[in-house]
Amino acid sequence: MTQQTGGQVHFARGVSIAERTIMPILAAMSLVALVIARAWPVTSVDSGQPTCIMRIATGLPCPGCGMTRSWVHLAHGDVARAFEYNFFGPIGFAMAVVLVVWTAYALLRRIPTSRLLDRVNPRWLVALTVVWLGYSVVRMISLGMGQDYFALVVA
């Protein structure tokens, strides 16, 4: 049973359609990305051409550069190489796995999937984002200066 109030459609328990569908949609997208990372051959990402527009235009890595390679290596069990491509790749990979597992658990137990967001501290997300962007700036500056700390990213 649904009711419409103020332009939004709500379920009888007061949960909007957006609140009910956002987590399963994000989980489905994460699952697709995890499956692609596992199916993608490692040799192809190691020798492939860059596809990042910022990298093609400037020669410098964007914050996400190396993330695809990191996920593919991690999906194939090469944890060390995954961290070398992008330190935050394995972190994002782990977050995707948690999202998929939580959503499946919540759907099976009939728990609102949005409760995962209640368990996440927004301050931690902001701090993680700031550290990720700082890491990215350090990568760009070091590569721009010709240092090879992150040479694997632009190889």
Automatic annotation (TrEMBL):
Origin: domain of life: Bacteria
Keyword Transmembrane helix: yes
Record InterPro entries: DUF2752 (IPR021215)
Pfam families assigned to the protein according to its UniProt record, in alphabetical order: DUF2752 (PF10825)
Record keywords, A-Z: Membrane, Transmembrane, Transmembrane helix
TM stretches of this protein: 21-40, 87-108, 120-138
Protein name: DUF2752 domain-containing protein
Species per Swiss-Prot/TrEMBL record: Janibacter indicus
